């Protein structure tokens, strides 16, 4: 029982919450780029928070159901259709054998998530079902691939209040924790960093997101490599920020001005190139409180 | 001497020194183990590097301040009874030949060395594993003899074959899989360090040691080496 890939796309991969305990072995965290949309997908179907979903980047994917089950599609609006009819997102849907699911061109956002009741039963590699192409762990979906899952006749849904469905077309402000070398940047450098509009460039993938803007003069270009947290903001040799994301290497040697709050990175994952972006400071207390609330709501625990 | 900074909403970074020092990797590795054992209910992952240890923790269970205090307490305790564990040494066969050592010819000319002297300088010492990173099983080894040190290439190569042995400044390393990179390639090993063999995850540990030994072109070819 599975979904079969009829047409593959630019980049669709199986992802779960990530590979959280292998940094010691030099592995990336991996996992879904938009934790918010992914968490809703599983939540709508009453799944455990860590069930594997398909992350569809920029659309172009077609799947055929070879199973009767339930799905939920969240995240980017990539013109999701069932049997060529526009289908509802952010909602549990019953699927029958033979149904064709397709995603076309992006209307809003970048990444859509296909969650299935019970999760996709892809191979567990190093403690996670997440694919990491940079590390040669698994592969992207290609034509003929089968995505195994179980069948279900009945399911109970949860509903989403419309206020939780995000608008991915707005410019964003990323809240930044003052971490790492924050105190080594001068007041002038920090002012320049927090008081400008950056622009998301095309160099923007699962590894990191490069921004363009006015460069910050840095005195220390490289330093001794150290462990990297998801969302760390490196200031590269050219004085411009790179936000390190799920597939980033576990260690790195550029100075870091701070770390973006994880739930704001979920918003970043849905922004297309040329979107304007600003940073503002966030306190540790505030970040932990907001993240804990999110974890409690979606029953995320380790 | 240590210094703890925040590294994100659920991570801290502990500095054990501010410059590269051969005594640090073992100390950091030991503390990482101690932390995982003592605070196993809240520690999620550790990333040791040259002078620091990155620790991620479960914010559902403990606040930043409470975690910071626990770690600081353990660090103070450790300084009074520093235990030294055995360090493992791994021997790696390398074919140092110009067909696979893409930068070997240039380095020999630049350094005014003959091949045998170069091999002797690269393979005669035990290297310390300072960090694992960049990609899985990629171990940063030091320190390379000054006479064969060389800066990274100005333009990194798009594809370096798996098993390539490289030098970057005072460090040397083996690329476990095909990847891009800017290190000076001086030879290749036939040892499979890829994750096709999951045991390779534990092949190298910060604080352990690695020594290379030279194999001939014939030996390299006899074991399936490609030129």
What does this structure look like?
The complex is a heterodimer of chains A (302) and B (227). Chain A is of the alpha+beta class and 302 residues long. Chain A has two domains: 2-164, no CATH class; 172-298, Cyclophilin (Beta Barrel), CATH 2.40.100. Chain A has four helices and 20 strands. In chain A, the strands form four sheets. Chain A has a seven-stranded mixed β-barrel with strand order 12-19-16-17-14-13-20. In chain A, a hairpin with a 5-residue loop joins strand 16 (232-235) and strand 17 (241-244). The longest helix of chain A has 14 residues, at 284-297. The model of chain A has no long low-confidence stretch (mean pLDDT 95). Chain B is α+β, with helices and mostly antiparallel strands and 227 residues long. Chain B has two domains: 3-81, Gyrase A, domain 2, CATH 3.30.1360; 89-222, Cyclophilin-like (Cyclophilin). Chain B is 24% helix and 30% strand. Chain B is built from five helices and 13 strands. Chain B has helices at 24-38, 64-80, 104-111, 115-123, 217-222, and strands at 3-8, 11-15, 43-48, 52-57, 89-95, 127-132, 139-142, 157-160, 164-168, 171-174, 179-181, 184-188, 209-215. In chain B, the strands form three sheets. In chain B, strands 5-13-6-7-10-9-12 form a seven-stranded mixed sheet. In chain B, strands 1-2-4-3 form a four-stranded antiparallel sheet, covered by helices on one side. Chain B has a two-stranded antiparallel sheet with strand order 8-11. The mean pLDDT of chain B is 93. The interface between A and B is large, with 44 and 43 residues.
